[in-house]
Amino acid sequence: MRVTGSVRAEERAPGGVELGVESFETLQLAQDYPITPKEHGTAFLMDIRHLWLRSSRQHAVLRIRSEIEQACRDFFYDRDFVLIDSPILTANAAEGTSTLFETDYFGEKAFLSQSGQLYLEPAAAAFGRVYCFGPTFRAEKSKTRRHLMEFWMVEPEVAFLEFDGLQELAEEFIECIVDRVLDRCKEELKTVERDVSKLENIRRPFPRITYREAIELLAKKGLPAKFGDDLGGDEETVIANAFDRPVMITKYPAAIKAFYMQPDPQDPSLALALDMIAPEGYGEIIGGSQRIHDHDLLLQRLKEHNLPIDRFQWYLDIRKYGTFPHSGFGMGIERVVAWMSGASHLRETIPYPRMLNRIYP
């Protein structure tokens, strides 16, 4: 339907304006629209995701997503970061070979990108402060509410930024995004019935605990976690529930982290890595580290992880021709949107979710 009229200010109206209708025209009479006022199952709604997007809740969630994405871009633009578009097709694994989507590249193996980080590091050598923002792919055979096969990630990388500065950057980034959503998405937050008091409490400094302290906390809560275990969704939720703001877990065992992470100078068995866990059970929203900047140590780590040296020679070159300390992190957009909007599943936080058993529409 096309409606014509005059727009005027009206403080009582949502959004502060109303339309005085002068004429209207029916463009099409949609017969048998599949979404009705009755309850529909999630599988049915996902099959018609292209129509479900029109509903008030889905509309609000995706407007919140749009504001978060713009907040990310503005944050880095205002701080003189340079946007670097990392490739989607790569010859390298960034986060382990078990979650790669493989494809044929004119007779050679290629993979869909797990992260833009490796390609950002040489750009940091050229520009100092850089970031990338785009889709990433993980072939994780997971059906949890926290996982998608295709998701969007924003990743900054900064030359001469070391671990303490990285934690401060992550804190500032999240606080800025929360403030932006609270300021500009008031109506959308009302639509999704979000308890904004929990978001208004998100203020720096955030609590910080080491991985060892996290394991001790889990043990006190009765979970059978031991040092050296990776932290899953259940463990992250228990840790998050002990705090009223995002919590940063730092200094993980190097053995359970990626090959490129800088060792802790006080204990080389630990990595200068951080994960930021969102409150209310939304899991890890940021993961990052200081990177190894010593050529020989990085070469050793590649060998320890049985990664093909020839495929990573360009990555080693960064350390061979003018090395420097540097750090960065990645933030998954969908988990932050879920947290901000109170969505129960990531499938509502992206227009067309790609899950283990779904690639339609």
Q: Which structural category fits the helices and strands?
A: alpha+beta
First and last CA, distance: 26 Å
Q: Describe the biggest sheet? A: 9 strands, mixed
DSSP summary, beta strand count: 14
* Mean pLDDT figure: 95
Helix-strand topology string:
EEHHHEEEEHEEHHHEHHEEEEHHEH
Helix % is 25-40%
Radius of gyration: 23 Å
Overall shape = globular
Number of helices: 12
Ranges where pLDDT stays below 50 over 5 or more residues in a row are: none
Beta-strand portion reads 15-25%
Care to describe what's here?
The protein has 361 residues and is of the alpha+beta class. The protein contains twelve helices and 14 strands. It has helices at 42-47, 49-52, 56-78, 117-127, 163-184, 186-191, 196-200, 211-220, 233-240, 295-304, 313-320, 333-341, and strands spanning 2-9, 17-25, 82-83, 89-90, 102-105, 108-112, 129-137, 150-159, 208-210, 247-253, 263-264, 267-278, 283-290, 326-332. The strands form three sheets. Strands 3, 7, 8, 9, 10, 11, 12, 13 and 14 form a nine-stranded mixed β-sheet that branches. Strand 12 (267-278) and strand 13 (283-290) form a beta hairpin. It is globular. The mean pLDDT is 95.
